[in-house]
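3.2 Worked example (two chains)
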Amino acid sequence: MTNLSFGARYWRKYWPLTLLSYVSSLIAIVSDLCLPLLTAAMLDYAVCYDPAHFKAPSGLFAFLFTGKYGDFGTLELFFSCAGVFAVILLVRLIFIYVKNVSFQNVGFCMESRWRDETYKKLLDLDGSALSQFNTGELMTVMNRDIVQSKEMYSRSFISFFDSVTVMIVTSLFLSSISPWLLLIPLAIASPLIVTLVRYVKVMRGIFTDMRRAYSDINLTVQENIRGVRLVRAFANEKYEEKKFERDNYAVRDLMFRLDDTAAKYNLFFNSYMQLAYAATIIVCVFLVLDGSLLIGALTAAGAYVMKIMNHITQISQNISNMQRQLVSLGRLRHFLETESGIKEYPEALRVSVRPHIRFENVSLTLGDKQVLKNISLDIPYGKRVGIMGGTGSGKSALLKCLSRVYDVTAGKITIDGKDIRDYSLSALRDEYAYVFQDVFLFSHTVDSNIAFYDPEAPVEDVKEAAETARAARFIEKLPDGYDTIVGERGLGLSGGQKQRLSVARALMKNAPVLILDDASSALDMVTEKKLLAAVKEKTPERTLLIAAHRVSSVADCDEIVYLQDGEIIERGSVEELAAENGRFAAVYRRQSADGSLDDSSYGKEAD
């Protein structure tokens, strides 16, 4: 499928409006092209009538000069012609309005549909598929590329249609005045087409570079918005300013190159147009002196040749714009046709409300790295499992496999004996409530962030979840309490406060399995212990999976597994593992020695 046929799939969905805009455009064009003929007839037979050089009226408006609407050279005939002129002009204006409204509506519908589909695609793609696109690229696709693609189908195509129609109809009218006049645009067409082909090639390359430059500048801005605190912390503003200036100047230089190229080629196009006009006047003067043409016909012929040349130039501009639009359409198509690596089976099973989870010799390879190796783990409903290990040991990857953020490359994960790939993604992911270490909060109120899963949840439930997550005290001290707007990504809150809001949000989901992925790393030991105790009390029967670096986080778990390089090297209760002379025991002794397991070594609970 070509890029054009890809876009045409969407365009055809609005064919009634599209047809209306093209029919309206055709009527408006024919009406507009009738005016020079009528003006010529008015000059020859009403304003500048000369019986000595009389030539019988013919053509489209011959009916006006039968004597029924006034004699030659009279005001009555002039006003009759002027009335017809006004009617034609009114028809033209009405259909131009209909055309503009209809093709703009087609454009708005296509743009809205594309925005909707790109956003859904963004949510649908898994991590590995999204990694093909950086943030700047995604923002460019979802904004600039959609607008450019829409402009091609709603504006450039109808403009191209207008130009071709004008050239065909004008040529017919011009030939009715004198076939000799068609030789002028035909003679100039060959060098004009050669110039146009070269122009298209040059502009396509420039627009490809410009799109890449805009993606780069979008990425730089996005990264600095997200990392503004890091930039300030390292006093690195000058470096980031220079990086932005580099990207900004790259866009500027491409704009200079674009304008310079357009100006050079437009010089050629304007020269061809002026040459055609001058040649038309010369030919028409000879035809008038020869008696083959009247003065009015000369003015009409000049107007028609100029229309042909103007629309040849307009076609060149449209083709130039379409190079930019085709580049954007190609990137939009590439994004929308990108397939997620996580496939959903059509025969989806229903998930149990008391899921029994099993890892059966699970391995996971991401790129060239094997992240998990032969993981076997039995988690009946209600079991509490702690997962420990150093950085990069595979803790987070193991938990993400449960909801198919990653699909395992060997072995399988089952729920109640059925492979999780046999369940629908939505049903499967409804089983889990995740709390991640890297907390994301939306730029909205505190209560809307907590009630993210169920925006219609009662306020009492929101407050109860906040109380369980040990967040109620600091929320009540915020300027507007639960109605306080938190900044993008939780800007303005501490790491511990954001983590507690995230725990409250997970509790509101009320899922059978609660997953805490290093979710208390920013909390002190007292707060962490009280939070985990409250969570366990709130969800006494539910499965709880805790990935952590601190022994205190997993001390009350039924089973603890210790990962190293993606493998389970130790498993057991905290007492059993502490008694062994293994990796867990070393961590346990180290954290016991520095007071990490002693609550008394910490101050009172933070708000």
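3.2.1 Second chain
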Amino acid sequence: MSKRKRILLIITGIVLVSILILSFYANSIIKNKIEGLLKEKMPEHIELLYKDITVQSLTGTISVKEPSILIKVKDSEHIQTQLTMKKLVVGNVSYWDYLINDQIHIGKIEFKDLETIYFKNHLNKAKDTSSSKKESKLLSSIKIDKLNIENASAIVYDGTKDSTLVSLKNTDVLIKDIVLDESSKSNLIPFNYKTIKIAADSIFYKNSNYENINLNHLLFEDQTLTLHGFHYKNKYSKKEYESLLSIQRDYYDITAEKLIINELTLGKENDSVVFKTNLISIDKANAAIYRDKFQKKEDLRIKKLYSKVIRELPLKLTIDSVSVKNSIIEYSEKLLREYQAGLLTIKIIDAGITNVSNTYPSPERTVIIVDGIFMKNTPFTANWSFDINNTDDQFKFIGKVGKLELSDMDVFLTPLLNAEVKGEVIATNFTINGNFDQSVINMSQEYKDVEVILLNKKKKKKELLSTVANVVIHHNSGKKGTLFHNGTTQATRDHTKSFFNYLAKNLINGVKVNFIKKNNYVKKEKKKKRN
């Protein structure tokens, strides 16, 4: 080896050893500096504990072993937030960007086994006591190439009797290319990012004082949110629930095997939250809705129609389409003490909704189209549309119903009206045009061998009353060549009831016109007006 090479190797060795020695001292100095800052500059209401801090100045990496943070409400012993984790790693910190560009640039931040506990009921106190705190000024920007949270869990308490508001487990979060600067401060999420992926299990959310939401699994990736095992359910038994109510309220038990929200955008526009998606898909949903009308008084507050509900939402909503497949709706209603609830069943084979939005201008309409089975095996289609910008809440509802064995309705009519019906409605077509106050229904029906049977408490036929009832009804819709019975009538909405009550009122009035012999129906209507 030449003398020149030996000198070069010696110099290189000296430089490397010097760097290692300087690095060792730098690590020690930086560690002491960090520990000093954490001890001296940490606000009094924040307690930080950790097992050890490791610094690698050459790679710009800081590791904190088993850190825990306890944040209290200022000037109080109330705990607001508690954080514990196995390890925190801040890696690849760029000193150059900090010194030259006044910018913090971090290669990665990793949280291992992060556990978060948050007390929502202490939030207002914290805001009150910190109102005088000046807003901290950001550097020109903070850049984080990758934020990774592994195996996290979180729980939020709201301070009520059943205190858990939100909880989730087995949560992983990966966000890439994060930028925090002045332009991102006004965002709904106060930073910009390139990609985000969130996965979590066993999600719980207390939706109200009566209902909870549970999810088996959540995945958000590439602007698509997928929910598996959705369950929206009343937390009480029906008996317990009724004992808590002062007025009538529905009892819910709703499940969905899978719910997918595609191309989801959440943001902020001026002072409004923006929710936008091109498609929501719901598969294999089951909705069981029950109402006890026997024990409690009705809720007499004014009910909005859906057009007004969407129009007055406190956010900018744009849902291009909703698809519902292979789903079931069961509505049960209890009216008489001695009978169980009456039951209506609708099987949704395919349903689609377009333009669920308060951002579209007129004359764009929200359109709901449903193809399904009513009760046991009666096919039906429905087309319901409205313009949310129409302040009269005008709507149009078109329905076509196939062959219905009237005895299939006994599971609903007998518990509610103590009656049975026989016969067959071969086809029903109707169109309803209405608004917030009034509607007109045109209905045509073909039916045969219709008979009404009124029952006593022992469910035996009341012969005389049944005979009288059958005198005033048409048993068949018409003779050969004129099979359909057509009728047009009106309905006045009860503003304290829902749209579906309004729909039912229209259908009942249409059936009365078609089934009850004209003279009897006219006399009955005149008597109502006199009263």
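3.3 Remarks
DSSP finds nine helices and 26 strands in the chain.
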